[in-house]
């Protein structure tokens, strides 16, 4: 097993479900960040994500908990909890327990996904989850794209940072994805918690292809370590969302979503089919990465080629802001050791 030396409790927005998995009145149980959680949708449509255990005697609300109007009712003794995790009713007493509260998570629904804000210190969100359309400021919306195609792989031994490092890793494209050329990065901006990476790439042509002749590329926005969105240009119009969420100390769930742009077409059925085919191809390429990540051992410090140095140094330095101790990996251990002795 290759347990990452990086914290599996990073700060940021992380996907825990798709919106359509949790209908009105549904209670969805799940485990992330080593916590049992429930997501439930009230009659009004409001979605709440909170820790799973009832503060009364500890029943798991995901096993028999029931949505009653705007509250979640425990299956054990009928206590009711609201969207703030507050107890609002004890059915056999005239007043609720105002002191106890179930921990809730800030939640947003965006691009058909449910994102929760995780922070070990319970600070409020300090950046926004990226939007695969609005984030690129080009007036696009889901209506311009075919329905989202998805990949969902559970409990893989990988860390969210591996996936982001892919974005500065120019050399892997040729070997993992069989691109004819090595992409060229035109933007690496790792300042705030949201970072930006642009690169020129093509999947067409052979070894004789020159980078100067390539008129296509990808723009990526990384909203922390958990959610990244991309937009392509100069090739089949596609957008992607990759979302990696730690489950426990060694595994993460991976969700990947692809949108293919609609084009004017007389034959709608055929256009739909072609879009699905292309989406499958994009997903296949992402699976090629997963195959590497799921068996990788985090290398720190890594042996880098000269041209790799700037990108990897920048992204690893940027990533540290999301770890509870502010330092990831061997640096964290070195720090702890220095404190001790
Ligand atoms: S354990 Fe939830 S009401 Fe008793
Ligand atoms: Fe890749």
TrEMBL record:
What start-end ranges are recorded for coiled-coil regions in this protein?
none
Regions that span the bilayer: none
Q: Name one GO molecular function term.
A: monooxygenase activity
Q: Which InterPro entries does the record cross-reference, listed alphabetically?
A: Cholesterol_7-desaturase, KshA-like_C, Rieske_2Fe-2S, Rieske_2Fe-2S_sf
Q: Does the keyword Transcription apply?
A: no
Quote the cellular component terms of the Gene Ontology held in the record: cytoplasm
Where does the record place the Rieske domain? 13-116
Keyword Coiled coil assigned = no
**Highest taxon, organism lineage:** Bacteria
This protein's cofactor list reads:
Fe cation
Could you tell me the keywords of this UniProt record? 2Fe-2S, Iron, Iron-sulfur, Lipid degradation, Lipid metabolism, Metal-binding, Monooxygenase, Oxidoreductase, Steroid metabolism
Single GO biological process annotation from the record: lipid catabolic process
| A Pfam family hit | Rieske
**Summary of subunit composition and partner proteins:** Homotrimer. The two-component system 3-ketosteroid-9-alpha-monooxygenase is composed of an oxygenase component KshA and a reductase component KshB.
The protein depicted here goes by the name Rieske-type oxygenase
